[in-house]
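Subject: mismatched residue count in predicted assembly?

I count 508 residues in my input, but I want to confirm that the predicted structure covers every chain. Input:
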Amino acid sequence: MQNTILFMLIAASIISCSPKNISSRYYFQHEKVLDNIEESYKKIYQSNPFSIGFSSRDFKTISVTIKTDTLNYIYEFTVGESRLADTLTKYKLPAASVIALISQMQSIRCTWISNYNYYVDEKKQSLIFMSIKPVALKVPFKNAKYYILTYFAQPQYFDSEGRLLDRRKMKTLRKINGEIFKRINDKVCYTVSVRYR
Amino acid sequence: MKFILSSVRILNGRLFRNPVIVLAVLFGFSTITCLGADDKKKTSTKEQAAAFLDKITRLDASSIWPGINPDWFLKNVKANILKPVTVYPGEGTYFCAYSALTYLILQDDPLGYAKFVIDLYKDGKAVYKETLFNPPATVKYEAGRLNYKGIMDIHPADQMWYLTLADHYKGYLNIFNRKYNTGDEDSFWASANYAKHNRMARSLLYYHVEARGTDLFRPWIKDLFQYLDEKRKKGHVVLYINNRIFYKKNHVTIKLSVPTHFIVLEKISKVGDTITLIYWDNGAKTQMQLSPAFLKRILYGITVLTRPGNE
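Triage response: the counts match. Full output below for your records.
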């Protein structure tokens, strides 16, 4: 009897930690903050292209990539460091908004956010790529898994199983970074991946 | 070399009958060549390549490469010639080694590159620097159809070129996946170990290639900054790095400490204990600051490419 209970507990914990289970509900549990992060990033990105990632496990160190016409600059900061605001201002990025964005990303363990260009019928499109490292996705001795969200600007096409399709070839699955994405809504998709960027 | 020989022929035939004088002139000329006066001389120039491409006003659709849009193909080749820095390996692919070499080829022999890709497009096979490239039907079918790779989606010439190189050159990382299948640009089929990269550099570039490092052990160099600074002044330097550490993906406890990425060093400087690197990577130049210890930690291979005789 004791063994059965123990087995059921272990099984329950494994099922509750499985990426599939987390993926199906994670977005809706955190919809507001995730959408806020996407909205703020999109708005700031228009002033100057950039991307942000947390480069340490404790979510205290950030890596900021700022793109200019001639060079990409990669800087590393500790969250809250005054150097960060100075650097953002130097590159004409709204420091207060970026710092607020970083804070929101930190609160939800969002490891990376960037703009990603792709082409449909030779026309440039872009999506926002976000990766999150939920606590429950951590499995000892295994590669860390990330919950990846893609925010498209236009509604996308999906098959009967909710998998993202290539618009040009309606029956072909569309892969991003080698991963198949699933539908959350018409414009937002998710996947679970070992790669966070 | 042709120039030297023809010059000697003229000197020998018309002015100098004395072989000693001819040899002395030849020796002097060669010495100048070896000592660097010729170092900046390129195998071909951007202008020559542009003139060659300007003669091709349009290309017909090819049954050999059914996925390639000929207008985009030509536009892509011309853009590569004009702005080599923007040459891009694609999002999520394993093309970084080929891309780093392409960046150098486009600077050194843009005409050779342009002729090769046009021949390859027209005939399905072509020779570059005495090597015949004849990719299989699977590669020919897929080139031009790769998508979700960023700007490479509309760069069919790059898709053709990278897939052809990846198909032709093989290293031990490709042992279990030697034949291309759809999607293999993101797999070990396309990956390059250090020895393969250097072999490709020797085969594709008109440079003397000197390599230090391995796939598993870092090169032992006492003052890495000084070494890189000196080598950069002599020629091009490709760095083989551990990308996971370079971009500090510190989200896992145990990290596989192996190099995975190739970048081209453009400039290196040092102030106090901070090294500033400017390097070419993924279609752009990037500036990053790091400590000497960190540089030592990420660096597994240094390939120095110099003009023959200027080693």
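Chain B has a mean pLDDT of 86. Marking this ticket as 'not a bug'.
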